[in-house]
Prior knowledge:
Blueprint: H1 3-24, H2 29-35, H3 38-59, H4 62-75, H5 79-112, H6 121-144, H7 148-172, H8 176-187, H9 189-199, H10 209-240, H11 246-278, H12 282-309, H13 311-318, H14 327-342, H15 344-352, H16 356-409, H17 414-434, H18 441-463, H19 465-480
Helix pairs in contact: 1-7, 1-11, 1-19, 3-6, 3-8, 3-10, 3-11, 4-5, 4-6, 4-10, 5-6, 5-10, 6-7, 6-8, 6-9, 7-8, 7-9, 10-16, 11-12, 11-14, 11-15, 12-14, 12-15, 12-17, 12-18, 14-16, 14-17, 15-16, 17-18
Amino acid sequence: MNIRRxxxxxxxxxxxxxxxxxxxxxxxxxxxxxxxxxxxxxDYLIVKVNAEILQYVLYFGLxxxxxxxxxxxxxxxxxxxxxxSIVMFFVVVVLAAAVxxxxxxxxxxxxxxxxxxxxxxxxxxxxxxAANFFAGIGSLWxxxxxxVKRFVTxxxxxxxxxxxxxxxxxVVLKLGLNGLLLALILGYMPASAAxxxxxxxxxxxxxxxxxxxxxxRFGLPFAMGYIAYFVVNRFNLLTLQHYxxxxxxxxxxxxxxxxxxxxxxxxxxxxxxQPIVYGAxxxxxxxxxxxxxxxxxxxxxxxxxxxLMFAREIILVVGSRNYLNGYTALLILLVxxxxxxxxxASNLALLYHRRPQVLTVxxxxxxxxxxxxxxxxxxxxxxxxxAIATSCAYLVMTATSFILAYRLNRLSYxxxxxxxxxxxxxxxxxxxxxxxxxxxxxxxxxLKLILxxxxxxxxCFVAFPNGIxxxxxxxxxxxxxx
Length: 482
Protein backbone atom coordinates (compact mmCIF):
# COMPACT_ATOMS: atom_id res chain seq x y z
CA MET A 1 0.00 0.00 0.00
CA ASN A 2 1.22 3.53 -0.81
CA ILE A 3 1.14 5.07 2.65
CA ARG A 4 1.80 8.58 1.35
CA ARG A 5 -1.16 8.31 -0.98
CA UNK A 6 -3.30 6.96 1.83
CA UNK A 7 -2.31 9.73 4.22
CA UNK A 8 -2.80 12.45 1.61
CA UNK A 9 -6.22 11.16 0.55
CA UNK A 10 -7.26 10.56 4.15
CA UNK A 11 -6.22 14.08 5.15
CA UNK A 12 -8.17 15.68 2.31
CA UNK A 13 -11.23 13.47 2.75
CA UNK A 14 -11.00 14.06 6.48
CA UNK A 15 -10.97 17.82 5.93
CA UNK A 16 -14.05 17.57 3.73
CA UNK A 17 -15.95 15.31 6.10
CA UNK A 18 -14.90 17.33 9.13
CA UNK A 19 -16.22 20.50 7.54
CA UNK A 20 -19.60 18.90 6.89
CA UNK A 21 -19.91 17.63 10.45
CA UNK A 22 -18.56 20.90 11.84
CA UNK A 23 -21.16 23.12 10.23
CA UNK A 24 -23.88 20.50 10.41
CA UNK A 25 -23.67 20.04 14.10
CA UNK A 26 -20.27 20.13 15.84
CA UNK A 27 -18.29 23.35 15.47
CA UNK A 28 -21.53 25.25 15.13
CA UNK A 29 -22.87 23.66 18.30
CA UNK A 30 -21.84 26.74 20.34
CA UNK A 31 -24.07 28.79 18.03
CA UNK A 32 -26.92 26.34 18.45
CA UNK A 33 -26.63 25.98 22.21
CA UNK A 34 -26.35 29.74 22.75
CA UNK A 35 -29.20 30.82 20.46
CA UNK A 36 -31.62 27.99 21.23
CA UNK A 37 -32.97 27.08 24.64
CA UNK A 38 -32.17 23.59 25.89
CA UNK A 39 -35.74 22.56 25.05
CA UNK A 40 -35.43 23.94 21.50
CA UNK A 41 -32.04 22.27 21.10
CA UNK A 42 -33.65 19.01 22.20
CA ASP A 43 -36.35 19.52 19.56
CA TYR A 44 -33.58 20.01 16.99
CA LEU A 45 -32.00 16.70 17.99
CA ILE A 46 -35.35 14.92 17.81
CA VAL A 47 -36.05 16.30 14.33
CA LYS A 48 -32.61 15.13 13.21
CA VAL A 49 -33.27 11.66 14.64
CA ASN A 50 -36.63 11.39 12.90
CA ALA A 51 -35.04 12.56 9.65
CA GLU A 52 -32.54 9.72 10.06
CA ILE A 53 -35.42 7.25 10.34
CA LEU A 54 -36.79 8.47 7.01
CA GLN A 55 -33.33 8.22 5.46
CA TYR A 56 -32.90 4.61 6.45
CA VAL A 57 -36.39 3.68 5.30
CA LEU A 58 -36.37 5.58 2.00
CA TYR A 59 -32.80 5.01 0.85
CA PHE A 60 -32.98 1.21 0.53
CA GLY A 61 -29.22 1.21 1.18
CA LEU A 62 -28.68 2.82 -2.24
CA UNK A 63 -25.75 5.01 -1.17
CA UNK A 64 -23.85 1.91 -0.08
CA UNK A 65 -24.77 -0.13 -3.14
CA UNK A 66 -23.76 2.70 -5.49
CA UNK A 67 -20.37 2.86 -3.74
CA UNK A 68 -19.75 -0.76 -4.76
CA UNK A 69 -21.68 -1.26 -8.02
CA UNK A 70 -20.62 2.04 -9.59
CA UNK A 71 -17.25 0.56 -10.56
CA UNK A 72 -18.94 -2.16 -12.61
CA UNK A 73 -20.81 0.36 -14.75
CA UNK A 74 -17.89 2.76 -14.92
CA UNK A 75 -15.87 0.02 -16.60
CA UNK A 76 -18.61 -0.17 -19.26
CA UNK A 77 -18.89 3.63 -19.66
CA UNK A 78 -22.50 3.65 -18.39
CA UNK A 79 -22.04 5.31 -15.01
CA UNK A 80 -24.17 8.37 -15.83
CA UNK A 81 -27.02 6.27 -17.16
CA UNK A 82 -26.81 4.14 -14.01
CA UNK A 83 -26.86 7.12 -11.63
CA UNK A 84 -29.75 8.70 -13.55
CA SER A 85 -31.87 5.62 -12.87
CA ILE A 86 -30.99 5.67 -9.19
CA VAL A 87 -31.87 9.36 -8.87
CA MET A 88 -35.19 9.03 -10.72
CA PHE A 89 -36.15 6.00 -8.64
CA PHE A 90 -35.53 7.96 -5.45
CA VAL A 91 -37.70 10.85 -6.69
CA VAL A 92 -40.61 8.39 -7.03
CA VAL A 93 -39.91 7.06 -3.52
CA VAL A 94 -39.97 10.59 -2.03
CA LEU A 95 -43.30 11.39 -3.68
CA ALA A 96 -44.82 8.20 -2.31
CA ALA A 97 -43.42 9.00 1.15
CA ALA A 98 -44.99 12.48 1.07
CA VAL A 99 -48.42 10.95 0.50
CA UNK A 100 -47.93 8.43 3.31
CA UNK A 101 -46.76 11.10 5.75
CA UNK A 102 -49.76 13.30 5.03
CA UNK A 103 -52.13 10.55 6.14
CA UNK A 104 -50.14 8.58 8.72
CA UNK A 105 -47.21 10.79 9.72
CA UNK A 106 -48.75 12.53 12.75
CA UNK A 107 -49.68 9.28 14.50
CA UNK A 108 -46.22 7.83 13.96
CA UNK A 109 -44.58 11.05 15.17
CA UNK A 110 -46.53 11.04 18.44
CA UNK A 111 -45.21 7.58 19.24
CA UNK A 112 -41.62 8.52 18.47
CA UNK A 113 -41.49 12.04 19.93
CA UNK A 114 -44.33 12.69 22.40
CA UNK A 115 -42.82 15.97 23.67
CA UNK A 116 -42.30 17.59 20.23
CA UNK A 117 -44.97 18.86 17.81
CA UNK A 118 -45.21 16.97 14.52
CA UNK A 119 -45.90 19.96 12.25
CA UNK A 120 -44.10 21.55 10.53
CA UNK A 121 -41.18 19.36 11.57
CA UNK A 122 -42.39 16.24 9.80
CA UNK A 123 -41.94 18.02 6.45
CA UNK A 124 -38.53 19.28 7.45
CA UNK A 125 -37.59 15.64 8.07
CA UNK A 126 -38.65 14.62 4.57
CA UNK A 127 -36.85 17.60 3.03
CA UNK A 128 -33.68 16.82 4.96
CA UNK A 129 -33.80 13.16 3.93
CA ALA A 130 -34.34 13.99 0.25
CA ALA A 131 -31.69 16.73 0.10
CA ASN A 132 -29.18 14.55 1.93
CA PHE A 133 -29.64 11.73 -0.60
CA PHE A 134 -28.92 13.90 -3.62
CA ALA A 135 -25.98 15.55 -1.86
CA GLY A 136 -24.70 12.15 -0.77
CA ILE A 137 -24.73 10.80 -4.33
CA GLY A 138 -23.10 13.99 -5.60
CA SER A 139 -20.19 13.93 -3.16
CA LEU A 140 -19.87 10.13 -3.37
CA TRP A 141 -19.42 10.38 -7.13
CA UNK A 142 -16.36 12.61 -6.69
CA UNK A 143 -15.02 10.26 -4.05
CA UNK A 144 -15.46 7.15 -6.19
CA UNK A 145 -13.66 8.82 -9.09
CA UNK A 146 -10.93 9.81 -6.59
CA UNK A 147 -11.37 13.48 -7.49
CA VAL A 148 -10.24 14.53 -4.04
CA LYS A 149 -9.81 18.25 -4.70
CA ARG A 150 -13.25 18.61 -6.25
CA PHE A 151 -14.77 16.62 -3.41
CA VAL A 152 -13.16 18.91 -0.84
CA THR A 153 -14.18 22.03 -2.81
CA UNK A 154 -17.84 20.93 -2.80
CA UNK A 155 -17.63 20.22 0.93
CA UNK A 156 -16.11 23.64 1.61
CA UNK A 157 -18.81 25.41 -0.37
CA UNK A 158 -21.55 23.37 1.33
CA UNK A 159 -20.06 24.11 4.73
CA UNK A 160 -19.88 27.83 4.01
CA UNK A 161 -23.50 27.91 2.82
CA UNK A 162 -24.69 26.11 5.96
CA UNK A 163 -22.63 28.26 8.32
CA UNK A 164 -23.69 31.56 6.77
CA UNK A 165 -27.34 30.54 6.55
CA UNK A 166 -27.34 29.30 10.15
CA UNK A 167 -25.77 32.51 11.44
CA UNK A 168 -28.16 34.73 9.50
CA UNK A 169 -31.25 32.72 10.45
CA UNK A 170 -30.35 32.31 14.12
CA VAL A 171 -28.56 35.56 14.99
CA VAL A 172 -29.77 38.15 12.49
CA LEU A 173 -33.30 37.03 11.65
CA LYS A 174 -33.85 35.13 14.92
CA LEU A 175 -35.88 32.42 13.21
CA GLY A 176 -35.06 29.84 15.85
CA LEU A 177 -35.33 26.14 15.09
CA ASN A 178 -37.11 26.69 11.76
CA GLY A 179 -34.24 28.86 10.58
CA LEU A 180 -31.68 26.28 11.61
CA LEU A 181 -33.45 23.48 9.74
CA LEU A 182 -33.69 25.66 6.62
CA ALA A 183 -29.95 26.32 6.86
CA LEU A 184 -29.22 22.59 6.98
CA ILE A 185 -31.32 22.00 3.87
CA LEU A 186 -29.51 24.80 2.03
CA GLY A 187 -26.22 23.19 2.96
CA TYR A 188 -27.09 20.13 0.86
CA MET A 189 -27.67 22.20 -2.28
CA PRO A 190 -24.08 22.54 -3.62
CA ALA A 191 -23.43 18.79 -3.75
CA SER A 192 -26.93 18.17 -5.11
CA ALA A 193 -26.33 20.74 -7.87
CA ALA A 194 -22.99 19.07 -8.68
CA UNK A 195 -24.77 15.73 -9.06
CA UNK A 196 -27.30 16.99 -11.61
CA UNK A 197 -24.65 19.01 -13.44
CA UNK A 198 -22.41 15.96 -13.85
CA UNK A 199 -25.23 13.76 -15.07
CA UNK A 200 -25.90 16.51 -17.60
CA UNK A 201 -27.63 15.39 -20.79
CA UNK A 202 -28.09 11.87 -19.38
CA UNK A 203 -30.67 13.17 -16.88
CA UNK A 204 -34.01 11.84 -18.07
CA UNK A 205 -37.26 10.77 -16.38
CA UNK A 206 -36.41 7.17 -17.09
CA UNK A 207 -35.69 4.27 -14.75
CA UNK A 208 -33.82 1.21 -15.99
CA UNK A 209 -35.33 -1.61 -14.00
CA UNK A 210 -32.21 -3.77 -14.06
CA UNK A 211 -30.06 -1.03 -12.52
CA UNK A 212 -32.51 -0.38 -9.73
CA UNK A 213 -33.19 -4.05 -8.95
CA UNK A 214 -29.47 -4.83 -8.75
CA UNK A 215 -28.78 -1.83 -6.53
CA UNK A 216 -31.76 -2.38 -4.22
CA ARG A 217 -30.97 -6.08 -3.92
CA PHE A 218 -27.38 -5.28 -2.96
CA GLY A 219 -28.39 -2.33 -0.78
CA LEU A 220 -31.25 -3.86 1.21
CA PRO A 221 -28.92 -5.67 3.62
CA PHE A 222 -27.23 -2.32 4.19
CA ALA A 223 -30.63 -0.70 4.75
CA MET A 224 -31.48 -3.31 7.35
CA GLY A 225 -28.09 -2.73 8.88
CA TYR A 226 -28.64 1.03 8.97
CA ILE A 227 -32.01 0.58 10.63
CA ALA A 228 -30.35 -1.71 13.14
CA TYR A 229 -27.60 0.89 13.63
CA PHE A 230 -30.27 3.50 14.25
CA VAL A 231 -31.70 1.31 17.01
CA VAL A 232 -28.22 0.85 18.46
CA ASN A 233 -27.36 4.53 18.37
CA ARG A 234 -30.68 6.36 18.71
CA PHE A 235 -33.15 4.02 20.39
CA ASN A 236 -32.05 5.13 23.84
CA LEU A 237 -32.42 8.81 22.94
CA LEU A 238 -36.03 8.11 21.94
CA THR A 239 -36.57 6.04 25.09
CA LEU A 240 -35.21 8.82 27.29
CA GLN A 241 -38.06 11.09 26.17
CA HIS A 242 -40.42 8.99 28.28
CA TYR A 243 -38.33 9.33 31.47
CA UNK A 244 -36.50 12.69 31.48
CA UNK A 245 -37.41 16.31 30.58
CA UNK A 246 -36.34 17.87 27.29
CA UNK A 247 -33.33 19.64 28.81
CA UNK A 248 -31.82 16.25 29.68
CA UNK A 249 -32.50 15.06 26.14
CA UNK A 250 -30.39 18.02 25.05
CA UNK A 251 -27.57 16.98 27.40
CA UNK A 252 -27.56 13.39 26.14
CA UNK A 253 -27.86 14.52 22.54
CA UNK A 254 -24.89 16.85 22.89
CA UNK A 255 -22.83 13.98 24.27
CA UNK A 256 -23.78 11.87 21.26
CA UNK A 257 -22.85 14.71 18.91
CA UNK A 258 -19.40 15.01 20.48
CA UNK A 259 -18.90 11.24 20.34
CA UNK A 260 -19.42 11.39 16.58
CA UNK A 261 -15.97 13.02 16.36
CA UNK A 262 -14.48 9.55 16.60
CA UNK A 263 -16.92 7.88 14.22
CA UNK A 264 -16.38 10.72 11.74
CA UNK A 265 -12.64 10.10 11.81
CA UNK A 266 -13.24 6.41 11.23
CA UNK A 267 -15.62 7.13 8.36
CA UNK A 268 -13.28 9.58 6.64
CA UNK A 269 -10.31 7.21 6.89
CA UNK A 270 -12.48 4.34 5.75
CA UNK A 271 -13.79 6.21 2.72
CA UNK A 272 -10.22 6.95 1.71
CA UNK A 273 -9.38 3.24 1.90
CA GLN A 274 -12.45 1.96 0.05
CA PRO A 275 -11.54 3.03 -3.51
CA ILE A 276 -7.98 1.79 -3.02
CA VAL A 277 -9.06 -1.67 -1.85
CA TYR A 278 -12.19 -2.14 -3.97
CA GLY A 279 -10.43 -1.05 -7.13
CA ALA A 280 -7.30 -3.17 -6.55
CA UNK A 281 -6.58 -6.46 -8.36
CA UNK A 282 -7.60 -9.48 -6.32
CA UNK A 283 -4.00 -10.58 -5.82
CA UNK A 284 -3.15 -7.28 -4.06
CA UNK A 285 -6.31 -6.94 -1.98
CA UNK A 286 -5.12 -9.04 0.97
CA UNK A 287 -1.94 -7.02 1.46
CA UNK A 288 -3.87 -3.77 1.10
CA UNK A 289 -6.40 -4.87 3.69
CA UNK A 290 -3.66 -5.75 6.16
CA UNK A 291 -1.52 -2.62 5.76
CA UNK A 292 -4.39 -0.14 5.54
CA UNK A 293 -6.09 -1.60 8.63
CA UNK A 294 -2.92 -1.25 10.70
CA UNK A 295 -2.55 2.42 9.81
CA UNK A 296 -6.27 2.97 10.33
CA UNK A 297 -6.28 1.53 13.85
CA UNK A 298 -3.17 3.50 14.79
CA UNK A 299 -4.62 6.85 13.72
CA UNK A 300 -8.00 6.08 15.26
CA UNK A 301 -6.44 5.23 18.62
CA UNK A 302 -4.28 8.36 18.78
CA UNK A 303 -7.15 10.75 18.02
CA UNK A 304 -9.63 8.93 20.27
CA UNK A 305 -7.21 9.15 23.18
CA UNK A 306 -6.98 12.91 22.81
CA UNK A 307 -10.75 13.38 22.61
CA LEU A 308 -11.24 11.26 25.73
CA MET A 309 -8.65 13.14 27.75
CA PHE A 310 -10.07 16.56 26.88
CA ALA A 311 -13.76 15.62 26.89
CA ARG A 312 -14.64 18.12 29.64
CA GLU A 313 -13.00 21.00 27.81
CA ILE A 314 -14.85 20.04 24.63
CA ILE A 315 -18.19 20.19 26.44
CA LEU A 316 -17.42 23.68 27.74
CA VAL A 317 -16.41 24.88 24.27
CA VAL A 318 -19.34 23.51 22.29
CA GLY A 319 -21.94 23.80 25.04
CA SER A 320 -21.89 25.30 28.51
CA ARG A 321 -21.70 24.26 32.15
CA ASN A 322 -25.38 23.36 31.92
CA TYR A 323 -24.31 20.33 29.86
CA LEU A 324 -21.58 19.07 32.22
CA ASN A 325 -23.93 16.66 33.98
CA GLY A 326 -23.61 14.54 30.84
CA TYR A 327 -19.83 14.18 31.27
CA THR A 328 -19.87 10.57 32.48
CA ALA A 329 -22.30 9.58 29.74
CA LEU A 330 -20.01 11.28 27.20
CA LEU A 331 -16.97 9.27 28.33
CA ILE A 332 -18.91 6.04 28.01
CA LEU A 333 -20.18 7.02 24.55
CA LEU A 334 -16.65 7.97 23.42
CA VAL A 335 -15.34 4.54 24.41
CA UNK A 336 -18.25 2.93 22.59
CA UNK A 337 -17.64 5.04 19.49
CA UNK A 338 -14.00 3.98 19.46
CA UNK A 339 -14.93 0.31 19.52
CA UNK A 340 -17.57 0.84 16.86
CA UNK A 341 -15.07 2.62 14.59
CA UNK A 342 -12.50 -0.12 15.11
CA UNK A 343 -14.92 -2.47 13.41
CA UNK A 344 -14.38 -0.78 10.06
CA ALA A 345 -11.12 -2.69 9.60
CA SER A 346 -12.96 -6.01 9.67
CA ASN A 347 -16.09 -4.69 7.96
CA LEU A 348 -13.98 -3.63 4.97
CA ALA A 349 -12.78 -7.20 4.51
CA LEU A 350 -16.32 -8.56 4.72
CA LEU A 351 -17.61 -6.05 2.17
CA TYR A 352 -14.73 -6.68 -0.21
CA HIS A 353 -15.80 -10.32 -0.32
CA ARG A 354 -19.43 -9.21 -0.85
CA ARG A 355 -20.77 -10.35 2.49
CA PRO A 356 -23.06 -7.45 3.45
CA GLN A 357 -25.61 -9.91 4.84
CA VAL A 358 -23.15 -10.85 7.57
CA LEU A 359 -22.88 -7.23 8.64
CA THR A 360 -26.66 -6.92 8.62
CA VAL A 361 -27.08 -9.85 10.98
CA UNK A 362 -24.38 -8.40 13.22
CA UNK A 363 -26.11 -5.00 13.27
CA UNK A 364 -29.44 -6.60 14.10
CA UNK A 365 -27.83 -8.43 17.01
CA UNK A 366 -26.36 -5.13 18.21
CA UNK A 367 -29.78 -3.49 17.93
CA UNK A 368 -31.31 -6.22 20.08
CA UNK A 369 -28.59 -5.76 22.70
CA UNK A 370 -28.90 -1.96 22.74
CA UNK A 371 -32.69 -1.97 22.90
CA UNK A 372 -32.79 -4.73 25.49
CA UNK A 373 -30.25 -3.08 27.77
CA UNK A 374 -31.87 0.31 27.18
CA UNK A 375 -35.28 -0.94 28.28
CA UNK A 376 -33.70 -2.20 31.51
CA UNK A 377 -31.15 0.56 32.22
CA UNK A 378 -32.69 3.81 30.93
CA UNK A 379 -35.67 3.89 33.34
CA UNK A 380 -33.31 3.47 36.30
CA UNK A 381 -30.06 5.17 35.28
CA UNK A 382 -31.33 7.59 32.62
CA UNK A 383 -28.44 9.16 30.64
CA UNK A 384 -25.74 6.82 31.93
CA UNK A 385 -28.00 3.84 31.33
CA UNK A 386 -28.53 4.89 27.72
CA ALA A 387 -24.79 5.38 27.20
CA ILE A 388 -23.95 1.96 28.66
CA ALA A 389 -26.58 0.22 26.52
CA THR A 390 -25.28 1.86 23.33
CA SER A 391 -21.60 1.21 24.06
CA CYS A 392 -22.11 -2.44 25.03
CA ALA A 393 -23.84 -3.01 21.70
CA TYR A 394 -20.92 -1.37 19.88
CA LEU A 395 -18.42 -3.60 21.63
CA VAL A 396 -20.27 -6.81 20.81
CA MET A 397 -20.74 -5.80 17.18
CA THR A 398 -17.06 -5.03 16.67
CA ALA A 399 -15.84 -8.20 18.38
CA THR A 400 -18.20 -10.28 16.25
CA SER A 401 -17.10 -8.52 13.06
CA PHE A 402 -13.42 -9.21 13.79
CA ILE A 403 -14.12 -12.88 14.43
CA LEU A 404 -16.09 -13.25 11.20
CA ALA A 405 -13.45 -11.43 9.16
CA TYR A 406 -10.72 -13.64 10.61
CA ARG A 407 -12.63 -16.78 9.60
CA LEU A 408 -12.93 -15.38 6.09
CA ASN A 409 -9.40 -14.15 5.30
CA ARG A 410 -7.28 -15.10 8.34
CA LEU A 411 -6.28 -11.50 8.99
CA SER A 412 -6.04 -11.14 12.77
CA TYR A 413 -6.21 -7.84 14.64
CA UNK A 414 -7.07 -9.24 18.06
CA UNK A 415 -3.83 -7.99 19.62
CA UNK A 416 -4.47 -4.46 18.35
CA UNK A 417 -8.11 -4.60 19.39
CA UNK A 418 -7.39 -5.70 22.95
CA UNK A 419 -4.40 -3.42 23.54
CA UNK A 420 -5.87 -0.24 22.08
CA UNK A 421 -9.26 -0.97 23.65
CA UNK A 422 -7.74 -1.45 27.10
CA UNK A 423 -5.75 1.77 26.73
CA UNK A 424 -8.86 3.72 25.71
CA UNK A 425 -10.84 2.38 28.68
CA UNK A 426 -7.99 3.30 31.01
CA UNK A 427 -7.88 6.83 29.60
CA UNK A 428 -11.65 7.17 30.12
CA UNK A 429 -11.29 6.26 33.79
CA UNK A 430 -8.29 8.57 34.12
CA UNK A 431 -10.21 11.43 32.52
CA UNK A 432 -13.11 10.90 34.93
CA UNK A 433 -10.75 11.02 37.92
CA UNK A 434 -8.99 14.14 36.67
CA UNK A 435 -12.37 15.83 36.39
CA UNK A 436 -12.61 15.65 40.20
CA UNK A 437 -9.49 17.79 40.67
CA UNK A 438 -10.11 21.44 41.51
CA UNK A 439 -6.99 22.75 39.79
CA UNK A 440 -6.39 25.69 37.51
CA UNK A 441 -7.16 25.12 33.85
CA UNK A 442 -3.53 25.57 32.74
CA UNK A 443 -2.08 23.14 35.26
CA UNK A 444 -4.83 20.60 34.57
CA UNK A 445 -4.26 20.71 30.81
CA UNK A 446 -0.50 20.27 31.33
CA LEU A 447 -1.11 17.23 33.55
CA LYS A 448 -3.47 15.76 30.96
CA LEU A 449 -0.90 16.20 28.20
CA ILE A 450 1.78 14.45 30.26
CA LEU A 451 -0.50 11.54 31.18
CA UNK A 452 -1.80 11.28 27.63
CA UNK A 453 1.73 11.02 26.24
CA UNK A 454 2.66 8.49 28.91
CA UNK A 455 -0.15 6.20 27.75
CA UNK A 456 -0.33 6.77 23.99
CA UNK A 457 3.36 6.66 23.05
CA UNK A 458 4.19 3.30 24.70
CA UNK A 459 1.02 1.70 23.36
CA CYS A 460 1.80 2.85 19.82
CA PHE A 461 5.34 1.51 19.91
CA VAL A 462 4.32 -1.81 21.46
CA ALA A 463 1.32 -2.44 19.22
CA PHE A 464 2.49 -0.81 15.98
CA PRO A 465 6.31 -0.79 15.86
CA ASN A 466 6.49 -1.13 12.08
CA GLY A 467 3.49 1.12 11.58
CA ILE A 468 5.10 3.93 13.60
CA UNK A 469 8.30 3.79 11.59
CA UNK A 470 6.43 3.70 8.28
CA UNK A 471 4.08 6.46 9.37
CA UNK A 472 6.93 8.74 10.49
CA UNK A 473 8.84 8.06 7.29
CA UNK A 474 5.77 8.75 5.15
CA UNK A 475 4.90 11.92 7.07
CA UNK A 476 8.47 13.14 6.67
CA UNK A 477 8.37 12.54 2.94
CA UNK A 478 4.86 13.97 2.66
CA UNK A 479 5.80 17.19 4.48
CA UNK A 480 9.11 17.39 2.65
CA UNK A 481 7.32 17.72 -0.68
CA UNK A 482 5.31 20.69 0.54
